[in-house]
Amino acid sequence: MALTPATGTTPAFATTPAPAEVVEALRRWPGSHRVAVGLSGGVDSSLTAALLVEAGWQAEGVTLWLMQGKGACCSDGLVDAAAICDQLGMPHHVVDARERFQAQIVDTLIEGYGSGLTPLPCSRCNREVKVGPMLHWALEERQLPVVATGHYARVRPRLHPENGTDRHQLRRGLDRGKDQSYFLYDLPQEVLGRLVCPLGDLRKQQTREEARRHELRTAAKPESQDLCLVERHGSMRAFIDAHLPPRQGEITLADGTVLGQHDGIAHFTIGQRRGLGIAWHEPLHVVRLDAAMNRVVVAPRSQAARDACSVGAVNWVSIPPLDRPRELMVQVRYRSEPQPALLTPVPALELDRASGRPHRVAIRFREPQFSLTPGQAAVFYEGDLLLGGGLIDRDATLSPEATSRASSGHEPQRA
Asked: Of residues 73, 125, 197, 309, which has the active-site annotation?
């Protein structure tokens, strides 16, 4: 399959299929048509279930009970999910995942914030709590070999006519404004090959229209927050305050000049400008969170950008692991635009191997980037094809060895 060369622009996508075409594609989907549909109680997962039923799939709804209280995937979501299953004539199952969610997401998130990271819970949740464990439950308890979710992303298993490779592929959703492939980069091949995301070929407006056509009770339901913990607690600050005690420290310049005080480094993130509570003759941005010294380091924007980082625990998705440098597009935040960069494979560390993803790359961007944030994901694309991704290291600068390798005379690997 020919791939679009890496450029500084986002490629234009194909014309969005009509919903009837999506249903017809589901009828022709390779493999089993027995599926567990993850239902949060929102319009996206509701329409996912409706389209699969319309296409003739044997579908059963599964709602994960993640935590108590308000939120799209909590108490009120359970009611809507059960009602959607009743409307569509599907069995509905509630799986208690609170213990796993607490250990894998809440505890890990608090540990990360407390150590000066800005964790990315959604991709971890998809791998460790939602998609992977839901597939395991569906296979073990209901003998359902496929799972479906309401993500705006396109999965192309090996046998899909658009694939053309021996690996399951992940592509951006056609609606670039809703694309959620970034949050699915960490899914292993064995899970990706059993995942169906019907909404990846639709735009959000079509989802609403189709939900109304199916007379789904969730058709007009408001959009949920990107992070369910925010819905539960009201804000990320409130979530942090509920789990981490205040710990006063200093806000300083890189040379140690003290500009003010803070009540916990967990309330700050790299690149932040507003809400610092300090005065200076020019705008300042957070450039480092020093957990050992309990210090927030700030600098003018001109000193805040970096052109390189090291990325570990890399999960290679649509291609095998790199064995030589290659130019790709790299996206470092969910809402940021991908940027051209040279990726160079480097030796894995023990923490990479412990994660089950024993790969690491050094990344050098063509232009300095403003928010290379430790704990966030760097996800690699070529055109709309997601190739892989990993987590940005605490020290965003390259090691001398990696710098030497990244700037050596190696010819970049191209498609």
From this structure: 125
| Domain end (from 203, 232, 261) | 232
pTM of the model: 0.88
- Tens digit of each residue's pLDDT (9 = 90 or more) over 117-163: 999 999 999 999 999 999 999 999 999 999 999 999 999 999 888 88
Q: Which of 292, 279, 293 is nearest to 250 (CA)?
A: 293
Whole-angstrom distance, CA of residue 157 vs CA of residue 166? 9
Q: Residues near 135 by Cβ (< 8 Å), separated by ≥ 6?
A: 36, 147, 191, 194, 195
* 3-class SS of residue 198: helix
Question: Which residue out of 85, 122, 197, 228 is catalytically annotated?
Answer: 228
Active site residue 125: yes
Active site annotation includes 309: no
Which residues span the domain enclosing 295?
247-302
281 and 362 both lie in a single domain: no
Q: Are residues 80 and 202 in the same domain?
A: yes
For the stretch 195-224, pLDDT in tens is 999 999 999 999 999 999 999 999 999 887
CB 251 within 8 A of CB 258: yes
